[in-house]
DNA sequence: AAAAAAG
C-alpha cells in the first residue's frame, strides 16, 4: 500500500527558529493519529491511502494547526500540498453558502493550480467543502460563477487572482490563511509585485504559510515583510536529489539527439516519460516527429491554449499519454506517480531546474530513471549539476552515439575546480579520477570543463 | 536567450 512518504523519507528535519518547535527528526515518526486530527480527516487519509506522514507533513501540520506562520523549505509534491491542505481543512469554519474564501493558495503555474485543487478536494473527502481553481488562459466567467456559489479555498496563479480582486469577484477580507507555494519560483517569474498586491488585500490578522524549494534572500525579504514570527522548517536534504532515482547522461552531438532519443526509448520501453526541452519550438518539433510513428505522445508549453494544456495534463495523468514533451512549465511540482523516466533532451538552464525536473520521477517511493543529453559544449553545466547534487552522473552509451568527451576528464576537472571535498562519497569515479587528467591549458579547442568560473568572473558585472 | 504569467 502506498504511504505518504513522498519526499525523502530518510531525511532529517532541521528547525531553525528562536522559538522551540515540535519539529525535529522524530517528527516523521509521529503518526497522523497523534496530531490531533479529526476522526473524519483520519478516515479520509486512510481511504486515500495516506498511512504515515512524510517528514514535511510531520513538521508542518502540528505547527500550522497551532496557528503559527510557517516558512518551510521543501521540494514539491503531494507531501507538501497535504502538509498545508490538512491544517486548512481541519480549521475550516462553516460559514454557509456563498461565503467568501477562508484560504487562498498562490502557485506559479496553471497546471499546479489544477493539481493543488484536486488534492484539496481529495483530502476534503465527504465533508462539505468547496475549492475553486483560478488561473489565466481560460474564460473568467466560469470562475466567477463558481466563486459566487461560494468557495472555501481559492487556489490560483497571481495574475488571474488579481484580476478577480479588481472585479470584486474575490473578497479576501475574511481570509484566515494564505499559502505561498513554490515562493522562490513565483519570485523568479516576476510575480513579486502581484503577490504583494494580493497580500496587502489580506487581513493583517491571518496565518501565512510559505513553501519554497530554496530560501534565498528575496524569499527571506518577502517572509520578513509579510509573515508574523514564522517558524522555519528546513526539509531540504543534504543530498539534493532523491536516492531512488538513477541518474545517467549521454554525450551526444546536437544534431543526433533525436536519433538518440528514439534509440533510448526503444531500449528502455518506459512506462511513462517526460522529455524536457529548452524551447517551446523545440518541443513542437520533437512532438511532431515522435507523433508520426508513435501513439500516446503529448506536448505541453506556454504557447498552447490553456484548454489544450489542461487536456494534455489530464490525459497524461490518465496514462493515455505516455510520453510528454515539455518545457519547464511542468518542471516543478507536477506530481504524476507513474512517471518512470525523465529525459533531459536539452540540459536544463540552471542546476536547480535539473533537480526539479528529475524530481518528477521516483515518486511515491517508486524507482525512477533520469537521462540527460549533454553536448560537448555543455560540460560546465553538467559539472555544476553534479556539484549541486553531490553526485557524479553515470555515463551511458548506445552504439553509434559515442561520447564526445571522456568521463575521466570531466570528473577530474570537477575535483580540480571545486575541490576534493565536493566529490560524491558514494561514487568512486570522482574519487579515483586523476587530477592530472584535467584539460591541458594548451589545448587548441575550448576545454569544456576548464576555466569556466574565471571567464565568467572576468566578464561578469 | 528562454521559460512562466493577465488580456
From TrEMBL:
Biased composition (Polar residues): 1-25
Enzyme class, spelled out: hydrolase
Superkingdom: Bacteria
Keyword tRNA processing: no
Keywords, alphabetical: ATP-binding, Helicase, Hydrolase, Nucleotide-binding
Biased composition (Basic residues): 451-461
Domain DEAD-box RNA helicase Q, chain residue ranges per copy: 30-58
EC number: 3.6.4.13
Nucleotide-binding keyword on record: yes
GO molecular function terms listed in the Swiss-Prot or TrEMBL record: ATP binding; hydrolase activity; nucleic acid binding; RNA helicase activity
UniProt-listed SMART domains: DEXDc, HELICc
Motif window: Q motif: 30-58
Region Disordered, annotated ranges: 1-30, 423-461
SUPFAM superfamilies documented for this protein: P-loop containing nucleoside triphosphate hydrolases
InterPro entries listed in its UniProt record: DEAD/DEAH_box_helicase_dom (IPR011545), DEAD/DEAH_RhlB (IPR044742), DEAD_box_RNA_helicase (IPR050079), Helicase_ATP-bd (IPR014001), Helicase_C-like (IPR001650), P-loop_NTPase (IPR027417), RNA-helicase_DEAD-box_CS (IPR000629), RNA_helicase_DEAD_Q_motif (IPR014014)
Domain Helicase ATP-binding residue range list: 61-233
Any single GO CC term annotated in Swiss-Prot or TrEMBL for this entry: cytosol
Family: Belongs to the DEAD box helicase family.
The protein, known as: DEAD-box ATP-dependent RNA helicase CshA
Amino acid at each position: 500500500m502506498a504511504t505518504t512518504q513522498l519526499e525523502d523519507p530518510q531525511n532529517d528535519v532541521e528547525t531553525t527558529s528562536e522559538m522551540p518547535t515540535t519539529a525535529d527528526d522524530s517528527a516523521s515518526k509521529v503518526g497522523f493519529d497523534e496530531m490531533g486530527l479529526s476522526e473524519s480527516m483520519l478516515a479520509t487519509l486512510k481511504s486515500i491511502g495516506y498511512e504515515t506522514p512524510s517528514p514535511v507533513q510531520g513538521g508542518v501540520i502540528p505547527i500550522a494547526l497551532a496557528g503559527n506562520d510557517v516558512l518551510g523549505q521543501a521540494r514539491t509534491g503531494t507531501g507538501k500540498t497535504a502538509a498545508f491542505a490538512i491544517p486548512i481543512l481541519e480549521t475550516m469554519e462553516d460559514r454557509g453558502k456563498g461565503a467568501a474564501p477562508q484560504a487562498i493558495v498562490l502557485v506559479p503555474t496553471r497546471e499546479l493550480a489544477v493539481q493543488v485543487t484536486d488534492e484539496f478536494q481529495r483530502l476534503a473527502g465527504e465533508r462539505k467543502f468547496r475549492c475553486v481553481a483560478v488561473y489565466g488562459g481560460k474564460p473568467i466567467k466560469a470562475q466567477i460563477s463558481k466563486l459566487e456559489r461560494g468557495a472555501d479555498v481559492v487556489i490560483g496563479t497571481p495574475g488571474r487572482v488579481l484580476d478577480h480582486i479588481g472585479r470584486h469577484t474575490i473578497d479576501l477580507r475574511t481570509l484566515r490563511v494564505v499559502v505561498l507555494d513554490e515562493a522562490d519560483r513565483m519570485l523568479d517569474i516576476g510575480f513579486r509585485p502581484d503577490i504583494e498586491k494580493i497580500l496587502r488585500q489580506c487581513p493583517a490578522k491571518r496565518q501565512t504559510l510559505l513553501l519554497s524549494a530554496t530560501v534565498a534572500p528575496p524569499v527571506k525579504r518577502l517572509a520578513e515583510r509579510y509573515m508574523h514570527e514564522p517558524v522555519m522548517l528546513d526539509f531540504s536534504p543534504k543530498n539534493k536529489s532523491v536516492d531512488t532515482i538513477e541518474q545517467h547522461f549521454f554525450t551526444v552531438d546536437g544534431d543526433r539527439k533525436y536519433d538518440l532519443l528514439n534509440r533510448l526509448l526503444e531500449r528502455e520501453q518506459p512506462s511513462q516519460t517526460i522529455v524536457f526541452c529548452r524551447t517551446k519550438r523545440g518541443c513542437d518539433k520533437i512532438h511532431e516527429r515522435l507523433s508520426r510513428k508513435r501513439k500516446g505522445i503529448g506536448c505541453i508549453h506556454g504557447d498552447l491554449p490553456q484548454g489544450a494544456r489542461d487536456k494534455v495534463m489530464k490525459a497524461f495523468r490518465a496514462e493515455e499519454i505516455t510520453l510528454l514533451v515539455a518545457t519547464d512549465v511542468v518542471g516543478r511540482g507536477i506530481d504524476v506517480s507513474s512517471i518512470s523516466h525523465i529525459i533531459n533532451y536539452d540540459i536544463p538552464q540552471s542546476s536547480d531546474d535539473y533537480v526539479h525536473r528529475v524530481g518528477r520521477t521516483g515518486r511515491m517511493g517508486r524507482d525512477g530513471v533520469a537521462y540527460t543529453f549533454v553536448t560537448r559544449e555543455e560540460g560546465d553545466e553538467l559539472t555544476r549539476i553534479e556539484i549541486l547534487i553531490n553526485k557524479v552522473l553515470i555515463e551511458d552509451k548506445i552504439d553509434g552515439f559515442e561520447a564526445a568527451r571522456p568521463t575521466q576528464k570531466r570528473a577530474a576537472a570537477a575535483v580540480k575546480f571545486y575541490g576534493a571535498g565536493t566529490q560524491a562519497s558514494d561514487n568512486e569515479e570522482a574519487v579515483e579520477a586523476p587530477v592530472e587528467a584535467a584539460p591541458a591549458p594548451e589545448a587548441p579547442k575550448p576545454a569544456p570543463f576548464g576555466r569556466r568560473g574565471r571567464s565568467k568572473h572576468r566578464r561578469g558585472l
